[in-house]
Amino acid sequence: MKKFRKVLDGLTTSSPVNPGGSPACGSAAGTPSAAPTPREIEIQETLMSEHFQICKTVRHGFPYQPTALAFDPVQKILAVGSRSGGVRLLGRPGVDCHCQHESGAAVLQLQFLINEGALVTACADDTLHLWNLRQRRPAILHSLKFNRERITFCHLPFQSKWLYVGTERGNTHIVNIESFVLSGYVIMWNKAIELSTKTHPGPVVHLSDSPKDEGKLLIGFESGTIVMWDLRAKRADFRIYYDEAIHSVSWHHEGRQFMCSHSDGSLSMWNMRNTAKPFQVTFPHGKTQRDGRKESCKPILKVEYKTSRN
């Protein structure tokens, strides 16, 4: 209020007033002079830029340009990553928090440490971050930078201390989630596929452990190649070579079959007993042509294998 009063005082004192209260005259003959215009009034401004600051008081609506999603089914927390490097955490009413990566790199993928109050973020600058969500203001505990390879996919099995990281070169690295350092165990692309196959399978687009055996890792390559890797024996159990590029893979909860979504708009279903060919191929959005075949559609970027008791 003191600053405001000084401004008002300057406004009132700049207009000359005679003792009688009427405007001052400009000549002895009593002819009144023109009153000063607003532009002629000089105000002594004492407010400066350091007296003001911009602060965000509210966030409204869904995060702008979302790029990744993750959900903790135990704590019922949703994490949304954005192209500008932000992460929004949403829970029950009143639970709403925003975190920001200093680099501003887009968030490619999010992985919750389920029911442990922690979150792994993979960013477009090929850096992994481990966030601690237990404190009032979430903060980064560890960061791991990949210098020679670009990160394309991450997978963290439930209650596992090993984080699997696929790269653009087709290799799969394993990170210890506790120390957040590379374990040294690397599944090279040329060992995952047959040695006689010289064609590069493309980037890793999927990683998941088998629901029946956590020691078996399913690796999906962009070209359509799928490998079931035995982590203990360090060899491939089987390999699948499919003609269409893969975008995502999802397991049936029993672990006996899985489903793939492809670039031609098809879904292929595979049985673990016979991996020579898919036991079913469907085009959910394709029309049937005159010859009985389904027409190709736009790629299905994500598929989730959901089942219900009834």
Describe this protein's structure.
By secondary structure, this protein is mainly beta. Helix content is 5%, strand content 38%. It is built from two helices and 20 strands. The strands form five sheets. It has a four-stranded antiparallel beta sheet, with no helix packed on it. Strands 5-6-7-8 form a four-stranded antiparallel beta sheet, with no helix packed on it. A hairpin with a 6-residue loop joins strand 13 (204-209) and strand 14. InterPro entries: WD40/YVTN_repeat-like_dom_sf (IPR015943), WD40_repeat_dom_sf (IPR036322), WD40_rpt (IPR001680).
Notable characteristics:
310 residues, four-stranded antiparallel sheet, 2 helices, syntaxin binding, WD40/YVTN_repeat-like_dom_sf, GTPase activator activity, exocytosis
SSE string: HEEEEEEEEEEEEHEEEEEEEE
**Molecular shape:** elongated
Largest sheet report: 4 strands, antiparallel
Structural class: mainly beta
State the end-to-end distance: 69 Å
The amount of beta strand, in percent, is 35-45%
Low-confidence spans: pLDDT under 50, at least 5 residues? 19-27
Radius of gyration equals 32 Å
Task: Describe the strand arrangement of the main beta sheet, using strand numbers.
Answer: 1-2-3-4
Helix share bin:
under 10%
Number of helices: 2
Number of strands: 20
Mean residue pLDDT: 85
